[in-house]
Amino acid sequence: MTDFFQLLIAGLALGAIYALVCLGFVIIYRSTGVLNFAQGGFVVLGGYLTHQFSVVVELPFAVAVLLAVLIVALVGMLLERVALRPMIGRPVFATILVTLGLLYIIEQACTAIWGYDLLTLGDPWGVRTVSVGATAIKLLDLWTIGAAAVVLAAFFGFFRLSRIGVAMRAAALDPEAALAQGISPKVVHALSWAIAGAVAVLAGVLLAAGPRGVDLTLGPIAYRAFPAMILGGLESAEGAVLGGLAIGLTEVLTAGYLTPNAPWLGANFHVVMPYVVMVVVLVVRPYGLFGTAEVRRA
Amino acid sequence: MLRNTRLTTEYHHDLALFRSRPAQAAMIGLGIVYFIAPLWLGDFWTTVLIYAGIASVGALGLNLLTGFTGQASLGHAFFLGVGAYATAVFADRWSWPFPVWLVAAATLGGIIGGLVGPFALRLRGHYLVIVSLGLLFFGQHVFENWQSVTGGLTGTAVRAPVALGGVDVARLEIGGFRFTRNQGWFWFVWLAVIVLALAAKNIARGRPGRALQAIRDRDLAAEVIGVSLVHYKVGAFVVSSGYAACAGALYAAYARYLSPLDFGLFLSIQYVAMIIVGGVGSIAGSILGALFLTALPRLVESVSATLPFVAQTTGEPGITVANLNQALFGLLIVVFLVAEPLGLIEIWRRVKRYFTAWPFSY
């Protein structure tokens, strides 16, 4: 049972990071209809920039993260303007490919600047464990869950309460009606990319801080967050959070229980398990758990 | 005098393979190039062209699925892997003779494609892309962990001789003149490309092709005019996966070594890039794109020695050749999609239009 609680916390921490990555996907998808494969690139870039500011320039950790968030948000806006805006109205696959192209450019720019070595972010939270009863819990996991919860709350607050947030939701719901009310789609698109970049940096920092470190392997986290997003339904922010937590738990529990008991499944089965869950869900509900069913009309 | 056949006045003009004398002349010219290229090119570029030929086969398959039917897939690398590992088993372990293992590998790919195809009936757009991505990751997991077949991460050597009735492609001998393995393979692979491209063209220009394009443009409308979605969508997956598996089999036989890492997401993206750069929904475009994207990294390697900002050895400051190649690859996709969405083939068509309408080219 103690094992179970340890895995539960670890799974929720991983799920919280997935939720942040997914949220980035969902924001861009809802307002621009683009599935952004470059989200993993933002995660990596955020990690490297935080390293640059906190370890190389030796700024305080919080300032370093803030600077990284600002820069990646700007990069997101720039990419939207240069590469994605001309793609409006083009087929789904074409826009996906553009974001994949951007992903390669970002990744290679990062290796050209920072090299292939694993870089550290320092240890802002302390690699320690706290004991609750017989269960040892990693402090890092608790910090991750807490920080992600704060960011998510701020995010939902922004979309519910602020003027711009409401405008963005309106634009996502019905772009033409929103335009008629004076909401500029250009501003909404640019902001969505900026916010997606910002949450990606936070996900990258949470993932890389402590023992993990920053290198290019941070990027594929985004591929593993896809099932979470699909599970929740592409256009549901609440779904992204729940899907993220569910997939994080699935992954950790699979690694903890299924892999040791079924060695024939292979050593890294927990990596593909989220996709298996996703396919099963999609067969039953082709638009995810919280997505809107598509109505087909001639 | 060259007859101007630019105006389509009858239905069979639309279906014709080579519509004008210049096109026929160009085909004869390409035929001559086919025979002399490996004699005239060095070993290095012959190898590049062999890989480009293998990639063309895969790209043809993907273009039938994505370009003609509109079913986006990032799972193409998985089917290449299926074909490659099927060759490792059929040709190497079970020692099946040459045409048999190739056909069997392609058939196996087609069957697995047929099992995956029905998902496309229920899912569209982004959902289908992500599910195909799931297929890719699942396949990679299998390739990495099914040790007895794939050798795990250490990979496996493949011996798949291409020899029929005493004629071995690797040791071709005509009139006492011995050709190298590369020369023989060049002729073999590009013969396969010609045959499969003709087959693809025949699918595309006839009734099935029109059905597939109707599905791409509006599947509901296609259904209403009597196109069976089940039949054609699943059929497109079967044919496309068969082509991919065939390309994988050729790759395994030529490269003689397989690693599960070869069949990852990057390979899938490369194939998608090939059809986009070459021309979506165009048979010739698939081959152009495959040639271009296979040759580009080699070209970058050969010119990088003269570029000042490229590091020649590791540790030296500056971007490495591998980095530069990947970044260029990304840039190329973005530039093509934004600036020339119909690909290289569209540039060619524009040039052609200019000259056929000359001197009234405006």
Describe the protein's architecture and organization.
The complex is a heterodimer of chains A (298) and B (362). Chain A is built from eleven helices and two strands, in the order H-H-H-H-E-E-H-H-H-H-H-H-H. With 298 residues, chain A is mostly helical. Chain A has one domain. A two-stranded antiparallel sheet of chain A has the order 1-2. In chain A, a hairpin with a 2-residue loop joins strand 1 and strand 2. The mean pLDDT of chain A is 86. With 362 residues, chain B is mostly helical. In chain B, 71% of the residues lie in helices and 3% in strands. Chain B contains 16 helices and six strands. In chain B, the strands form three sheets. In chain B, strands 1-6 form a two-stranded antiparallel sheet. Chain B has a two-stranded antiparallel sheet with strand order 2-3. A two-stranded antiparallel ribbon of chain B has the order 4-5. In chain B, helix 4 runs parallel beside helix 7, helix 9 crosses helix 10 and helix 14 packs antiparallel against helix 15. Chain B is globular, with a radius of gyration of 21 Å.
Give a quick summary of the entry.
The complex is a heterodimer of chains A (298) and B (362). With 298 residues, chain A is an all-alpha fold.
